[in-house]
Amino acid sequence: MMVFTPTQSFLMIYDKMNNDKFSKPSSLQENAIDFKAAGNEPSWSLEIDFDHKMHFKSLNHPQELITPVPNPELLQDQLIERYHAVTESGELKVAITKKVCTDPMSGEQFPSKVSVLVKLTADDEFTEYTGCGGRLLDHRLHNIWALEEMEGEQVTADDFGNEIPVLEMYTAEGRVVGQDGCNRLSGKIYGNKAHLTFGLLMSTRMACPKMERSNQFVKLINQHKYDYHFEPRQLVLSQNGKAVLKFKNVD
Q: For a pLDDT cut of 70, what percent of the chain falls above it?
């Protein structure tokens, strides 16, 4: 029996939902989409490329709505992300709640509940849509990764005076925790099947004997975007075709 991950199942439902009325190619390339959400009665879908655009379409609205991605409003200790965008074509309000969401038709569970309010220019009021969604980070990133190489140099625990930096990524939740060889780290991760972006990282403030390497590591990942690929038991983060960070799987 073939078993699908929640993300794979979600994509199957999403693709199935996009029938002939949605056959027009998306203005967002598939490998640039970071987040997908969908719902039923009527069928609707939302694609978000957090670097560029939100793209909403529904059977209720023959006109698709594409907007820039505004800075999110974070509520309830970051359990809810809200995005509010206004364009000449209309207005889009998106709320993403980190709460398990069950699709009523398929019974599948997804990591987020999604509410969308849409008002096109010709509309008198907002129409609300509810459904489920999830980030599209590669599920293989969901692992524990220990730093092996930094800017072309092999690293050891002695370089950091304490221990090798380690990152643990939770792709379904879009977050990362770990340590830089001295201090604990935590923050958001964004991305898709090709790119990985680290958000603003929070850190403890312990002083350690060799902070230079730890500071270098944090500087390289904090609010930085990378291409990534996998090698046997390795994760490689690159920029402009050059490997910047290499990690090994230690889970």
A: 87
